[in-house]
Structures are given as C-alpha cells and as structure tokens.
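Late entry, written up from scratch paper. The run itself happened at the end of the previous shift, but nothing got recorded in the book at the time, so transcribing now.
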Amino acid sequence: MHRRGLFRKDWVPKLLSLAFALLLWFFVVGGEKAEVSVSIPLEVVNIPAGLVIANDIPSNINVRVYGPRSLIRTMAAKGILKVIDLKDATPGKITVHISPDSLSLPGAVRALRIQPSNVEIMLEPLVLSDFPVKPVLKGTAAKYYKVLDAYVTPPRVVLSGPESVIKAMKEVKTFPVDIEGASDEITRKVGLDLQGLNVSLEEKATYKVTVRIVPVHGIRRITHIPVYIENNEAGASWWPRIVSVTLRGSLLDLREIEAKDIHVRISIKGLGPGIHSLEPECIVPEGFTLMEITPRNIKVNIPKGSQINK
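Output as recorded:
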C-alpha cells in the first residue's frame, strides 16, 4: 500500500521528466546537420500563345543541400517545385539561371550546389502541317512469296510542333509491322513513331497498314513432253516426237509441274499428202503462261493416197 501511494504521489514529476527527455532527444536528433542531394522537379508555365519549346529541357534539377536533418526530411516529404515563368517571352533562346535564392527552401536549409544551374530554353513559332505516313515492315515473307506493296489508311497525318522540326520533316513512319513467314495479305492496326520528334498529333485516328503479299513468279523449262497428232487416221508420221516447253508462273507451282501436266498436239485436218511444217498447240495448266516451245515447228509426213477429212 505504501509503494502504491508513493507512485501515485510522484507520477506527475516522472511524466514531466519523460516528456522532457523525449523533447531533448528530438531536439538533438532533429537538429543534427546533414548534407544530402534532393531532386527538385522543374515546371515551365505561361508559355506565350503561338510559341512552343523546341528543345529538350531537364524535368528535374539536382540540388545539394545542407541543414538540419529533420527539416530536410520534412522538405523532401512535402516536395518543392522550381517554376520557370515564360510570361512575355519572345521567340529565340532563353537562358534561365537557377540560384539558391530562387528555391523555396526552409530558412535553416541552404543550397550548396545546383545541377544544372542554367537551363536553356529555345522558343519557336508553333506550326501545323500534314505529312504522308510511310509503313515500316520487319521480317521477310514466306519462301516463294514477296511483298507486292504496302500502304497506310488514312495515308496522311496532321502534326503540330516547332517550326524548325516541322520544316525538316518529310514523312511520318509507323511502328514496324512483322511480316515474318507471311504468305497472304496482312492488315494491322499500328501507331505512329513520333519518338524524339517533339511534335503532337492534331487529330485522333486509327492507322492501319495493309501489306499485299503475292507469290514470286519465275520461269522454268520442262523437257521430254510428248507430241500427239489428233485423229491420225492417215497414218502420218512426225518428228520430233518430244519437245521442251518454257512456262512462266509462281515458283511454288513451277516446282510441282511435270511433263504429264502439259499437252502438245498438232492437227493435220485439211492437209494433203506430203511433208508439212506445223506449229503445235500447247495446253498448260491454269495459272501458267506459255513462253516458248522448242522446237517451234513439227515436221509431218502424210502418205500419198491418204484420205483426210477437211
């Protein structure tokens, strides 16, 4: 009972001592000096109408500060901003000097070093222009196929940006469309590659790239194709009895065609006895074009006394 009464009697001085100790600790720790680097964002405001920033400027500055650790910690938590006001600025190069006094730092915190301490801003007239859109392809079509052409819909785009940038541009490219191994037409939605150009789209649109892929055509000579005479009731003889044919078509189909797929024939209808030089008729599969028959003429000998229907 005596101890409990003693505690109740002394609790107020003890509580005050604890509070004083905490306050002293906070003062000692909080008042400890520190030198640290902080990143401060840059914000450009009041750009005059009709003008635009034509160069890349840093989004942050690095400031080396010195002061009480608690204040620096509080400053970093709240965040501070460096504002560059371009009100009344004119076209041309502007150099903005960032001094320690221009930063909103707590009174006990001072800036030791600012990097960069000068920010160059190039102001130019803001202009608009339209440009053709060029499709960009990557990869190769399937074997025996090729790209016939590629186009973008819509074919043009309107951009705004600094005068020097817009004047130097001739076209706008799409992001790459992959055609690796393709053997048929491809249509893809794509974005426009405006990276690093410092320009803006003036209208929203969905751009599509269409790539037309067709078979590669070539020429092949097929040999040992037999020659036939239609309705050879007269017993005519002919030579040569085999020919060669040159065809044009897709390389894929040309690889598969054989002599038996081609028909070469001659007609002796209406001819009398004797030796004749005739051009044969050649029938080739659909999709192929006949380029040449070798030899071009076939000799035919019709015996005397033969009767041939006219």
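The helical segments are 2-30, 69-78, 163-168, 251-254.
(Scratch paper discarded after transcription.)
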